[in-house]
Amino acid sequence: MEETSYKRRKLVEDDENHSKILNESTDKKDPSAVDEAPYVIVVHGPPKVGKSLLIKSLIKHYRGQYPDHIGGPIRIPTGDRRRIQFVEFPNNMNGMIDAAKYADAVILLIDANYGFEMETFEFLNLLQVHGMPKVMGVLTYLDELEDAETLKIIKERVMNKFRTNIHERAIIFCLSDVHHGIYHKNEIDESANFLSEFHTLPRRAAHPYLLVDHFEDVTSPALVHMDGKCKRDIILYGYLRGCDIKKGTKVHIAGVGDYPVADVTISADPCPLPPVNGYDKKMQINIVHNDLDEESRFEIDSFRLGTYLRFRVLGVPFEMVANDDPCQPILVGGISRAEDNVGHMQVRLTRHSWHTNRLKTKDPIIVSVGWRRYQTTPIYYQDSNGRHVMLEYTPEDQPCLATFWGPLAPSGAGVVAVRSLADSKAPFRILATAELLDLNHTVKIVEKIKRIGTPCLILNETALIKDMFTSDDEVDQFRDVKVQTACGRGDQ
């Protein structure tokens, strides 16, 4: 645990040193302007495909120099009012899910000798569900393909797959060989121009969140000495993104759970942009109280978008500290009052075409919806003449309805289902995608009931069955209900 904490502190110190080296004076800006949080660029690709080298080359493009190594997220200023933060892709499903929710732009690196990897398609699916940011493809190791005709065929094949999964105008940049430890300047210049503009996704703009670049364990040493597995008190650091946040907001720490924020204060910006004439956007007006009513005080006790904040959270599991990975940022999302409740949610679900087996009712899956990801056991069903009839398995080639228990999320939110932890090493881990429907508390799901009878008359494709029911009450119960044979033949 001490070694992990040391690694994180070392990365933070390196990041701050890099920022000091790279943070040269820039043009003056409008004093009324608000400094935006650094835009997060997730760099994705398999091992040894050139992720770190691309990050170094882009930093060289922006600042004229680059760090010797990339050991975690790194921030740099790229203009008078803009900063960006590079995050090397976390190569695990939980990291993929979180990255799809915080990435402002994604760079997908593709080895020209190998083509697309399965994780690339999984990540694209997650991005499509949780809101597609700007995505660019980068083809590497082109210098190893000496045959011009082979190179042309590979470029066309990769481009077609890329456009099929993104959009028809998607672009792939090509990086050839390396000169003096970086990629060609003109190729990097083209890639950087593509990253000059970002668009804000609507769902993120409506919810406060932050990407934690480091945290401190401030638990009493005496408590830790008495019980090494005691709950911990921590302080989280990160830029406020999405929208303003108020004191008292409850947050969800991805992979950990929901927690009230014990305290939130402004902290020193680790990658500051130069102020104009002493102006500081973080300066607060002291009135921030005896002459104000409670609602007015609540409105004032808020923090603006782009501010670097210090969150204090109490009672998190010790595993958050013990299993901390300093190279993987932690996503923290603000929870609205509606999302602070639990209940049954209904979704319209489509099994992924690459998942060959049908999903079985009550088999555990992991769902990602809103800021959260958790394990649940869904029930699949279909609407049959106004009745919701439970299915043992999802249909072969059409959507169905599903309901599962969990923390509530707003209707219209994207949902993705992935394999449970026991099956996490399967080749393709995404099971299905879904859209959250309006909450319907009147939904009642009835199980399919098997009835056995004896055919007494068969005319072409019509059969009359006797002895299926034992009373008039049972007959009334099954009026207007869809009847289907065991092999799937239905009533006409």
Observed structural traits:
492 residues; alpha+beta; 9-stranded mixed sheet; 6-stranded mixed sheet; 11 helices; 28 strands; disordered N terminus
Quick synopsis:
It contains eleven helices and 28 strands. With 492 residues, it is an alpha+beta fold.
Descriptive report:
By secondary structure, the protein is of the alpha+beta class. The chain is built from 11 helices and 28 strands. A hairpin with a 3-residue loop joins strand 13 and strand 14. Helix 2 packs across helix 6 and helix 3 (93-102) crosses helix 4 (118-130). The N and C termini lie far apart (67 Å). 30% of the residues are buried.
List the SSEs and their pairings.
Layout: H1 2-22, E1 39-44, H2 51-63, E2 74-77, E3 83-88, H3 93-102, E4 105-111, H4 118-130, E5 134-140, H5 148-165, E6 172-174, E7 178-179, E8 182-183, H6 185-194, H7 202-205, E9 209-212, E10 214-217, H8 221-226, E11 232-241, E12 245-246, E13 250-253, E14 257-266, H9 294-300, E15 302-303, E16 308-316, H10 319-322, E17 330-335, E18 342-351, E19 365-369, E20 372-376, E21 379-384, E22 387-391, E23 400-407, E24 414-418, E25 430-436, E26 445-446, E27 454-459, E28 462-466, H11 472-477
Parallel strand pairs: 1-3, 1-4, 4-5, 5-6, 22-26
Antiparallel strand pairs: 2-3, 7-8, 9-11, 9-17, 10-11, 11-16, 12-15, 13-14, 13-17, 14-16, 18-23, 18-25, 19-20, 19-24, 21-22, 21-23, 24-25, 27-28
